Amino acid sequence: MVLNSNKMSALNTSKIYHERQTRQLCALHTLNNLFQCKNSFTKEQLDEICTNLNPSVWLNPHRSMLGLGNYDINVIMQALQLRKCEACWFDKRKDPACIDLQAIVGLILNVPSDYKLGFITLPLHRRHWIAIREIDEKFYNLDSKLQMPECLGNQEQLFNYLRQQLQTNERELFVIIENGGANDSDTSKKWLKTNKEILTPSSSMNGHVS
């Protein structure tokens, strides 16, 4: 029996944990998809982090004013610390190939996102979080808006995908690494390959240096 490509994709991703989008909880889905576990974090935990960040503020700036989610990077960073991890901002002037993929937990993309009410797109400027990680020697896009995980391929295919994603200023990349603890002050630099800090062509043309 010959399986079509859609069925093959379903078989290949059936063992991958992938939370689908509900309300404005993409940050929660991203964290759980990143750690491949449904119970890595809950909405209640992220709401508690918001309160701890701004305990005296009625309209918390780190989430939606309706309490539906839409958590910002501060909440994600605090949540990662609970798992002894940290998020390192990636300088888009560098080429993604400078990332040592063997030294990281995964990646989180932050991209613009339209907000829809039914079939109507509302003029609200929102952000969307996306987890990317390696599973069984392949890299997967675990975007909660996808019906199933998207296989990006090997390292070079991942780098090409990231180059394309980071061409616009509206997109940001965070490298997720394990925290080395108090005795390891250089943890945030260990994911950078030596002699691989290559500027993107567009940045080079603009005369930027790292």
Automatic annotation (TrEMBL):
PROSITE patterns: JOSEPHIN
Compartment list: Cytoplasm, Cytosol
Occurrences of domain Josephin (ranges): 13-191
Catalytic residue positions: C26, H128, D143
Residues annotated as transmembrane: none
Main location: cytoplasm
KW Cytoplasm (keyword) present: yes
A GO CC term assigned to this protein in UniProt: cytosol
GO annotation, biological process: protein deubiquitination; proteolysis
Entry GO MF terms: cysteine-type deubiquitinase activity
Top-tier EC class: hydrolase
E.C. no: 3.4.19.12
UniProtKB keywords: Cytoplasm, Hydrolase, Protease, Ubl conjugation pathway
PANTHER family linked to this entry: JOSEPHIN 1, 2, JOSEPHIN-LIKE PROTEIN
Protein purpose: Cleaves 'Lys-63'-linked poly-ubiquitin chains, and with lesser efficiency 'Lys-48'-linked poly-ubiquitin chains (in vitro). May act as a deubiquitinating enzyme.
The protein's name: Josephin-2
Source organism (scientific name): Glossina pallidipes
Lineage, top ranks: Eukaryota, Metazoa, Ecdysozoa, Arthropoda, Hexapoda
